[in-house]
Amino acid sequence: MKKVIAALLILFASLFLGSREGSAFLLDAECGRSLPTNAKLTWWNYFDSSTDIQANPWIVSVIVNGKAKCSGSLINHRFVLTAAHCVFREAMQVHLGDFDAWNPGQNCSSGARLSNAYCVRIDKKIVHAGFGKIQAQQYDIGLLRMQHAVQYSDFVRPICLLINEPVAAIDRFQLTVWGTTAEDFRSIPRVLKHSVGDRIDRELCTLKFQQQVDESQICVHTETSHACKGDSGGPFSAKILYGGTYRTFQFGIIIFGLSSCAGLSVCTNVTFYMDWIWDALVNLSA
Ligand SMILES: *[C@@H]1O[C@H](CO)[C@@H](O)[C@H](O)[C@H]1NC(C)=O
Ligand SMILES: *[C@@H]1O[C@H](CO)[C@@H](O)[C@H](O)[C@H]1NC(C)=O
């Protein structure tokens, strides 16, 4: 109980200490740091850049009816950022930390605390009011509030969001995906994969997908380990030197790509929606 209260205090402190007016600040001061990957370089994963949860402790699996439907990112002790199309009417849960990605529903029903991991029910869902109104893929951003705050560890830690100031113009992103492919998306692999995506001219995505891709979105090209089914809602990120340390910041939310899961994909521009994120967090914590 004491631990929960401490975590809640941290949550409220991180929400209210910095007012939105004035200088830039991190949503959560403990964000964006992780241990180097533990994945052993065996011959079969040497070429596909496997990684693990300790290198990506902010990666969240979004569970609906016991099935992993989407990804998301932990942004503080209580909230997960994801895509609006990953927010379902049905009861939802999120898995954080070192869980068994092949059996995501396991132990969610009991709500038990797994070692190094959490399975937490969602008690509030927010999607952007504009989502679904104009064009299916615009305003594709949502927040999930967990029933209780989670404590940070090497396996569970938030990704950075900078409030009040765009971080930097980034042209090369990291994306962390489950590594499913169009040919094999039946099960989500246990191992996360790292990939690199380059920001490219939005016009290319507009042409390719036959719909306007604007400033609220980012058009990205990946060479390997593309975003695919189950990766929607997950983060596009980059490591940036901030306040003397390298931290991982989130820039995009994976929203859609080609049905082949190769090449181009579009993500929601997180910087564009930072005020929306902040307002939603303040409203929900009030
Ligand atoms: C899930 O719960 C069952 C029954 O309580 C237990 O036997 C099993 O070890 C748990 N699984 C994990 C991954 O903790
Ligand atoms: C994302 O949005 C921010 C804020 O509007 C803007 O400055 C930036 O250029 C956008 N990024 C891209 C890649 O369009």
TrEMBL record:
Keywords: Calcium, Disulfide bond, Hydrolase, Metal-binding, Protease, Serine protease, Signal, Zymogen. Residues 1-24 form the signal peptide. Transmembrane segments: none annotated. CDD domains: Tryp_SPc. Residues 16-282 form the Peptidase S1 domain. GO terms for biological process: proteolysis. GO terms for molecular function: metal ion binding; serine-type endopeptidase activity. InterPro entries: Peptidase_S1_PA, Peptidase_S1_PA_chymotrypsin, Peptidase_S1A, Ser/Thr_Proteases_Immune/Dev, Trypsin_dom, TRYPSIN_HIS. GO terms for cellular component: extracellular space. Belongs to the peptidase S1 family. CLIP subfamily. This is CG14227-PB. It comes from Drosophila melanogaster (Fruit fly). The lineage of its organism: Eukaryota, Metazoa, Ecdysozoa, Arthropoda, Hexapoda.
